[in-house]
């Protein structure tokens, strides 16, 4: 049960983090003066990585553990659902958000920024669904 609770805490923490970024951090990007934006974006990248990295790593470890050695009585469906949600988050981050941030690091571009907001909404929704799957695991196993 400890693994399930730790996994739930990690997924919930990441979902809260992602919604904060989507609702608070990213909207502020459009307010930064154009001349200052590249430095602002690079600073954002440096500062966000140590926050998100451990959340990704923790979720990765607990999810792999659940997939590789699912405890007795833990249903498979929420494990698979959670794995799919995490894959969406990680894929959208690595394949879409990171390259968009690199582009923005060269200068603010409204189209790139709009695309980042769309990608981030997908990440926030997938993270939320992953938290629901993790809660399902805890409730179904309790």
Structural domain tally: 1
Mean pLDDT: 96
Largest sheet: none
Structural class by secondary-structure content: mainly alpha
- The parts where pLDDT drops under 50 for at least 5 residues are none
Number of strands: 0
Span between termini: 8 Å
The SSE order reads HHHH
How much helical structure, as a percent, in the residues? over 70%
Outline: elongated
Strand content: under 5%
Rg: 17 Å
Number of helices: 4
Transmembrane segments: 48-67, 79-100, 121-139
Keywords: Membrane, Transmembrane, Transmembrane helix
Organism: Geodermatophilus aquaeductus
Protein name: DUF1772 domain-containing protein
Short overview:
The chain has 142 residues and is an all-alpha fold.
